[in-house]
Design brief:
Helix content is 29%, strand content 28%. It is of the alpha/beta class. It folds into two domains: 58 residues, 2,3-Dihydroxybiphenyl 1,2-Dioxygenase, domain 1 (Roll); 83 residues, 2,3-Dihydroxybiphenyl 1,2-Dioxygenase, domain 1, CATH 3.10.180. A four-stranded mixed β-sheet has the order 1-4-3-2, with helices on one face. It is elongated and about 55 Å long.
């Protein structure tokens, strides 16, 4: 039995615009089907559904998408793209894009730095003051 689990994102008439926006940011991405009510798309090969469900529900931080980044260049790229045109920066690597979807742009080295008992407190103090993560500052903490 194959179980496909994927997110369905509820938009207020902007599902197609959001799918195009996201597909323009993430590699290996494409719109697979679009019937005005529902758009099926892939981001980095992972399936998503965008639903034009109306104004009844809004996105919030209770659900976010995490982007693991190996380099500062990756962090800078995703941060710039996802905050463009009205996105909002938040703290500790969190942001909301122009559609209100929450993202966490996180360096892959962070768990290792936080896992070091001799440095974890200093690392935590440094990253709690950040919006966009700065890998060098974390490593130097």
């Amino acid at each position: 039995m194959k179980n496909n689990i994927y997110p369905c994102l509820w938009f207020d008439g902007q599902a197609q615009a959001a799918a195009k926006f996201y597909c323009g940011i993430f590699k290996n991405s494409k719109i697979r089907a679009d019937n005005q009510m529902v758009v099926e798309f892939e981001l980095d090969g992972k399936k998503f559904i965008g639903l034009n469900g109306g104004p009844h529900f809004k996105f919030n931080e209770a659900v976010s998408f995490v982007i693991d980044c190996e380099t500062q260049e990756e962090i800078d790229y995703y941060w710039e793209k996802l905050t463009a045109d009205g996105g909002i920066e938040s703290n500790c690597g969190w942001l909301k894009d122009k559609f209100g979807v929450s993202w966490q742009v996180v360096p892959t080295v962070l768990p290792k730095l936080l896992g070091n008992p001799e440095r974890s407190q200093q690392v935590m103090e440094v990253f709690m003051k950040m919006k966009k993560f700065d890998i060098k500052a974390l490593e130097n903490a």
